[in-house]
Amino acid sequence: MAVQRIVIENCAIATVDAGDTEYASGHIVVADNRIESVGAGKAPENLENVVRRIDGTGHLATPGLVNTHHHFYQWITRGLATDHNLFNWLVALYPTWARIDEQMAYSAAQGSLAMMARGGVTTAMDHHYVFPKGSGDLSGAIIRAARETGVRFTLARGSMDRSEKDGGLPPDFAVETLDGALAATEATVDEHHDASFDAMTQVAVAPCSPFSVSTELMKQGAELARRKGVRLHTHGSETVEEEQFCKELFGMGPTDYFESTGWLGEDVWMAHCVHMNDSDIAAFARTKTGVAHCPSSNARLAAGIARVPDMLAAGVPVGLGVDGTASNESGELHTELRNALLINRLGAHREAALNARQALRLGTFGGAQVLGRASQIGSLKAGKLADLVLWNLDTLAHASIADPVTALVFGAAAPVSLSLVNGKPVVEDSRLLNVDEDAIARSTRAEAQRLARIAAQA
Fold first, then answer.
1. Fewer C-beta within 10 Å: the chain N or C terminus?
2. What region does 206 belong to: left with phi over 0, alpha with psi -120 to 50, or beta?
3. How many percent of the chain have pLDDT more than 90?
């Protein structure tokens, strides 16, 4: 079958390549699922099999956004425990989360994915770690929702085996056994992980956090991931309380604990990493351990301000994360570009902390690095996969901002006129093409109400 091409012209382009190449008015040619060319001015003449031409006047083209940390199931528990710190928030919500089932997980994943995709996310991830007994195939349900939405997806198959009786936070009935968690994780990798260049679904090994899993699960989880050739993910250094917990339980801080269990390396990324000292950052830089920076969630739970400028200066790979929508109710990654910039300017570096282009890089190429897919996605470059977004800046909200990248990052959330994933349209004119947003809204509302009833009766 002949190659089919989509041509986008007359738009500003931020490639986010190694040189941060930009074009005030340029073109992108997509051939099947790859980017064929990017450049200034009009597209080459006499291209064959052009199935669609798009006039991008008034738009900015960027790589698709890459989300590096999320908990989809939390979509149906939004707006609860709004004035809690992390540990109190977890204690308040675990009894409800521990009663989710397959339909709830599927519906919540649909809502989370829809909200991200309509806002420019082309690669999503979900760290799912709550597997109540008899709840059904939760991993399969989440992956099905991602496939239907049409986004590229990494499932971080989480687990917990340290419950209240062992000094952890989750209720006893909400955790798995060590052997059960490892076996289920391996089965998920075997069934769903695709290692190919243009994979739409990948799986990572992801015990939840130091305070909800045993040391054995951390160690054997790392061994499992490396035996299977997949990535590793967990929460790390999110709060002061977590650091105290690690010192009391393990006799060392979180970073030293992670290193002792095999959890530093270029195949690892951690969520949050708010409370990192100089030696912690140096260890992450030395081992190329990645960070998922979640600015809105960190603020919502009063966790603190992560030292993102220092991490970047040291060479730590950093991407952006929505985090679960019980701690970031908007569920949108494109607003995290702005929040990352603004919140980091409240830190020690002040106005020099981040600029607009650094924020865009965090949400695109940085995320691709963290997920181990920098050779495939995250920048607009010939040969890479055709995951890209066309942002409409021809609006009242952006009309007087001359620089398009500044308009995108500093300005109000820009509408998505077109989002391509693997060369296929997923969003047009701010509407999802593959799923019914209104039906998802009704479904998630109903499942949230059902979960609330079940939790109240428990």
1. N
2. beta
3. 93
DSSP summary character for residue 364: I
- State the Cα torsion 332-241-100-300 to the nearest 10°: -30
**Amino acid 154: pLDDT:** 98
Question: DSSP string spanning 126-161?
Answer: EEE----TT---HHHHHHHHHHHHT-EEEEEEEE--
pLDDT tens for each residue of 81-117? 999 998 899 889 999 999 999 999 999 999 999 999 9
Give the pairing of strands 431-432 and 65-66.
Answer: unpaired
Q: Which helix (H) or strand (E) holds 122?
A: strand 121-128
- The total of other beta-carbon atoms located within 10 Å of residue 229's CB is 10
Across residues 385-414, what is the average pLDDT? 97
Where do we find the tokens 């919500």?
93
Angstrom distance (rounded) from CA 369 to CA 66:
10
The three-point CA angle 124-294-330 to 5° equals: 70
Residue (of 359, 358, 361, 363) closest to 322 by Cα position: 363
Q: CA-based angle 353:125:230, to the nearest 5?
A: 105
Q: Helices marked H in 293-347 — which ranges?
A: 295-300, 308-314, 334-344
For 183-237, how does the pLDDT look when each residue is reduced to its tens digit (9 = 90+)? 999 999 999 999 999 999 999 999 999 989 999 999 999 999 999 999 999 999 9
Judged by DSSP in three states, 105 sits in helix
